[in-house]
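User: Can you predict the 3D structure of UDP-N-acetylenolpyruvoylglucosamine reductase? Sequence below.
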Amino acid sequence: MFLNDLRRAFPNANMKFNEPLKHYTYTETGGPADVLIFPETAEEIKALVRFANKAHEPVLVLGNSSNVIISDEGVYGVVLMLTEMDYISFEGDEIKAGAGSKIIDVSRQAGDRSLTGLEFACGIPGSTGGAVYMNAGAYGGEISEVLVEIDVVSKAGRFYTISNEDLKLAYRYSDLQESGDIVVEARFKLQAGDYDTIQATMAELTEARESKQPLEYPSCGSVFKRPEGHYTGKLIQEAGLQGYTIGGAQISKKHAGFIINIGGASATDYINMIHFIQETIYKKDNVLLEPEVRILGKRTKYDVVDDGFEHQ
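Assistant: Sure. Here are the predicted C-alpha cells for UDP-N-acetylenolpyruvoylglucosamine reductase:
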C-alpha cells in the first residue's frame, strides 16, 4: 500500500522497487531496497521525508556508497540516493557543491582554478555529503579545515543551514551522525595558490594512494578508524592477518587496513571479517578497533541495524 501511495504522490520521481544495492556500493555487496529514489532537489527531499514520516516508514540516505556495507537482507522503507544532486560551482575562492557530487571532483576542479586547501581530498572516492558527514580526511587534511556551512533537511523535513562550528567536527565525526540531518549542499572557502604547486601535490598524493591501496578490487576503503597511539594497518599486519579470507572477503595483502572483494563476497562476509579482526586485535594488543565504515540495513546475525537516517 505504501509503495503504491508513494508512486502516486511522486509520479515524476526516479524510483526503483526491490532494487539490489550491490549495484551501487563500492564493495559490490548489499541486498535490495524496498524502494530506491534518486531525488534531484532539496524540495523533493523535504517532500519525500515528510511523506515517509507520515506513513511511519524509515528513510536511509546514501551518497556515493563508497564507505558503507549494506546488509545482505537489504533495507526497509525508503532509500534516498543523492547522486543526482551533482553540481559544483565557484565564485572567487568559494565553492558550492551538491551533496551528491564527488569530493574528488570538487578537489580537482578547485586545483584547476589554482585554489588550495582541498588537495588532500584528490583521492577520496566518497560524495561531498558523505565527506561532511564523516569529516573525511587524508594525508594530514580534513573537511573541517575548509568547510564554511551546509544546507540540510532535518528528519522532520525542515530545511535549514548549519555552520562549520555548529557541526562539532572531529576525527571522522560530525554532529550529523547524531542529528540525522541530511546534507543537501556544502559550501567551502579555499585560498588562492600556485597552480603548479597544487598540481604537483595532487599528483604526489594520487601516486601514493595508487601505489599503497588495493584500488584494483572492490572495497569500502579504510575499514577502521585509527586508534589513538596506533596505526590500524600495522596492527593487522603484525597479527599476521593479511590475506586472511572469509567467503569472498579478504584482508588486502597490499594494505592491511582494507578488506577487498576478491569475488562473490557478501555483506555478511564483510561483517564477519570486521568482527574477526576486532576480536583478534583486541586479544593480541588490547586495542578495540572502531569501524569507520557504516554498516546499514536490516538486522544481521550481529544485530547491526540502523533504520534511521544515515548519510554517506
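DSSP finds eight helices and 19 strands in the chain. Residues 224-291 form a domain with the Uridine Diphospho-n-acetylenolpyruvylglucosamine Reductase; domain 1 fold (CATH 3.90.78.10).
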